[in-house]
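From the shared-data thread, chain only:
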Amino acid sequence: GHLSLNRNQNYYRTDPSNGNAQLPYIDGMDGMPIFDRNSRRNAFLDQQIYQYNPEGKAEADELLSMIDGYQGDVEPVLTFISVTMNVKRPPFDDPRIRKAMMHAINRQQYIDLIYAGDARANGLVHWPAGAYALPDEELEQLQAYDPERSRALIQEAGFDLPLEINVTFPANTTLQEHSAHLPIFLQQMEDAGFQVRQDAQDLPSWIGSYANENYDCTLALNQDWETPEIPLNFHHSRGPLGDNSYSDGLQDPAIDAEIERVNTIMDHEELVDAIHQLQRDIYEAGPTYLPIVSPFNRTLYWNFVKNIPRGLGTLDRFINDWWLGPEVRGPSGDANCDGEVDAMDASLVLQQSAGLLPALACPTNADVNHDGQLDARDAALLLQHDAGLLPELPS
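Structure, as tokens:
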């Protein structure tokens, strides 16, 4: 499908830093899903779209070094894969089993294998939440990867090794790199003394099972959580949304009361301290919701996208004072943006049109005859101009 959004002519806000100019600045926005990554990349390189999320740091660095026309933006991803346990179903009604699950998770392995180091370990409050998350040094003590400890806790709870558990998950989904998390999770569980009975469900069925709490344990997708409230509410008896969906929490009145008290604190420093202590208390009780890791998100823009919001997560979708300005580029025909129009530009256009060059630094400049195509006709005009046979190129 295709989505077209037009500027709201009656929008109430103006920009006080620009003579109270009427917002928003852009006239509209067109959007369409491009599911194939290579197609998205090529559309970005050809300036058919103005924003692109590379697969990771390596691709971002490649593009930034290849073409001068980009701006890069790095932000934390506000979501993650989590392990959610149902305390109303054995064996997860036993805090020792929940702690065994916690110590079975080697977060560094997810960071290294899935994100090539471009991620950080989460505690009960994910690290992109900033000061509300516990320091890394403390997390290394509270949720240390220790499969031998997991095995000991399973036996201490009265179970033989391996302990068989049911785990549901959405099948064959690349959302949030879930399909890459799954084999790592399964191997880590085996190493820690768990034998996983896999219950792979299609995505709609899994969402229904999760919402209706029809699971023992699930390797779960998550929304973008921009505050610590929802992750902590997973440990409340009424669940993350307060309607007894997704999780019944720890069924611990003391934890419930502490969560409710934290949600009333207005002073920032007091709130940070209270959320830190709440997390420590949940660790002591045996958490039921374990965020794994959150990666970094790298976004590339063409250089004519101005006033790009940074550090806002999904809130940037509501910012309305960014605009499209003139592209930073040389004259018409300057395909490599070096300030000169010469035979080198013609050579680059020919290579790109033949598929030998993935992209040009300034493709808009390279379309010399403005017919929407980059081909030999543009190269011919450039060569004629370079030889002095064509005094001026079309502007």
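Residues 330-395 form a domain with the Type 1 dockerin domain fold (CATH 1.10.1330.10).
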